[in-house]
Amino acid sequence: MNTFLQFLAYPIFFNVMVAFGILFVFQAKVIFALFDLHKSRNRGVSRPLLGNPDSQLAIFGRFLAGEFHPELRRKWSKAWAYMITSVLVLLGYVILQEIITP
Which of 4, 23, 29, 33 would bridge 83 by S-S if both were Cys, CB 3.0 to 4.6 A apart? Predict the structure, then answer.
């Protein structure tokens, strides 16, 4: 059982690295898409965040609601879910390893 758990460590760690890479790419796409959207709406005018419907915070909230780039939001959400699941599997593996091999 110990050999099997040691063998299983490499694919689980590789899976976490792949999930992080995918999340990194989609996070960058979201940041650049929302930055371009904010820049095109405000044209360099700096206003306070609260009460401004075209602020970065409001645009991100509307992105999460699906008003802007709904296909990117769906892929971004799946990338976050994949990353969270991968980290939880890695954490479960570490806990199992500690229980089986003291």
Answer: 23
**Residue-wise DSSP of 34-71:** HHHHHHHHHTT----STT-TTSHHHHHHHHHHTSS-HH
Euclidean distance between the first and the last CA atom of the chain, given in angstroms as a whole number: 13
Cα distance between residue 101 and residue 31, in whole Å:
43
**Rounded Cα distance, 93 and 6, in Å:** 10
| Tens digit of pLDDT at every position of the chain (102 positions) | 678 888 899 999 999 999 999 999 999 999 998 888 777 666 655 666 666 777 777 888 888 888 888 899 999 999 999 999 999 999 999 998 888 876
DSSP state of 8: H
Look at residues 43, 47, 70 and name the one whose alpha carbon lies nearest to residue 57: 47
Count the neighbouring beta carbons within 10 Å of the beta carbon of residue 39: 10
